[in-house]
Write a structure and sequence with these properties.
CATH class of the largest domain: Alpha Beta
Largest sheet: 8 strands, mixed
Order of helices and strands: EHEHEEEEHEHEEEEHEHHHHHHHH
Strand order of the largest sheet: 5-2-1-6-7-8-11-12
Number of strands: 12
Number of helices: 13
CATH architecture of the largest domain: 3-Layer(aba) Sandwich
Low-confidence stretches: none
Radius of gyration: 19 Å
Number of domains: 2
Structural class: alpha/beta
CATH superfamily of the largest domain: NAD(P)-binding Rossmann-like Domain
């Protein structure tokens, strides 16, 4: 029997996955809190614009207010909102999750500890991913890393390989290269190492990855941030896990070598679209809305304090982003548009 799937949080990442699975013939419902986006998907389908192709598919899209009236339950919920929306959206969709259904947090950060108390440990599967996409126009996603350059890591929280994990692997194969891991927490922390180097730092500087990595002082800052995050993860007991499709051999080396490899792998994956790619924190500033910095760099700071590991670079990044937010992120949006001729 076909699995019933819900994508909760159909932003750039959720919409990309939802479109891929719909095109592959899966039974998918997309649920989002942006009314104009839902209306556009209902009237004209969902367009995913990629470097060398475009996917345009009709989809089943729902407003949040429609959820209470949905007369169905889902086998799989791909939860893909901003980290700060995790708790309440998990509560919203919980009544629609089958007793043996699973929630997969396709998000930045380490949000399982927010999901587990709501749906239960046995109904959560972990996920780490590398998909670059953005959405500024309702119904239209610019996807910078198409499925052949995207990566999705999946794992049970207890570390065992289960039939349902293999099922999920097959289901998401249409969206990118899939890695099934016995160390999903390690994979997620490895992704956080990368996120702490590029998302908030490049967002606060108003830089894209390709240009930021060419500035020696910024590159050094990235490496310092990544090393801090690695140190906190080690103190918490996380074993670094190869991600982004890297092999175990490619992931070997000193701490500096590993963080530099993570940093440059992202730029490489962006390929010919590198000059179009804007990190998610920069996107949020351009939209004038709250960023996930507290759940990325801020999480490193929080966990570092718990483990008595100093994180001065991540603290500085978190504080600068907080100051930008207090001052009004519209300023950085105006500066970026001006410097880019927009």
């Amino acid at each position: 029997m076909a699995k019933k799937i819900a994508v909760v949080g159909a932003g750039a990442i959720g919409s990309s996955l939802g479109a891929d699975m719909t095109a592959a013939g899966h039974d998918v419902a997309l649920i989002d809190q942006w009314p104009s986006h839902v209306d556009a998907m209902r009237s004209d389908g969902l367009r995913i614009v990629m470097p060398d192709k475009e996917l345009h598919v009709p989809v089943r899209a729902y407003h949040l207010c429609d959820v209470s009236a949905l007369d169905q339950q889902f086998d799989i919920v791909l939860l893909s909102p901003k980290s700060y929306d995790t708790r309440w959206l998990t509560e919203l969709i919980r009544p629609c999750l089958k007793p043996d259904g699973v929630v997969v947090g396709v998000q930045n950060g380490m949000n399982e500890e927010s999901i587990i108390p709501i749906v239960g440990y046995q109904r959560v599967i972990g996920c780490a991913f590398e998909i670059s996409a953005e959405i500024f126009t309702p119904g239209v996603v610019q996807r910078n890393t198409p499925p052949e350059r995207a990566w999705i890591g999946l794992g049970e929280l207890h570390g065992r390989i289960t039939p349902r994990l293999r099922e999920l692997e097959a289901l998401l194969a249409c969206a990118g290269k899939i890695t099934v891991t016995t160390n999903i927490y390690g994979a997620k922390w490895s992704k956080l190492v990368n996120s702490s180097m590029i998302l908030a730092p490049f967002g606060m500087l108003g830089l894209q990855s390709w240009e930021a990595t060419q500035i020696p002082e910024v590159f050094k800052l990235c490496v310092r941030l990544g090393r801090e995050t690695m140190s906190v993860g080690a103190a918490l007991g996380y074993a670094m896990e190869p991600i982004f499709g890297l092999s175990a051999e490619e992931f070997m080396g000193s701490a500096n070598e590993v963080v530099e490899k993570l940093l440059m792998t992202i730029v490489k994956h962006h390929g010919s679209t590198a000059r179009k790619v804007r990190g998610v924190v920069l996107q949020d500033y351009l939209k004038g809305r709250r960023t996930e910095t507290d759940y990325l760099s801020g999480l490193v700071v929080q966990k570092g304090r718990e483990a008595s590991i100093p994180t001065p670079a991540n603290e500085a990044v978190t504080e600068v982003n907080a100051q930008i937010r207090r001052a009004g992120s519209s300023r950085i949006a105006q500066t970026w548009r001006s410097s880019n001729g927009c």
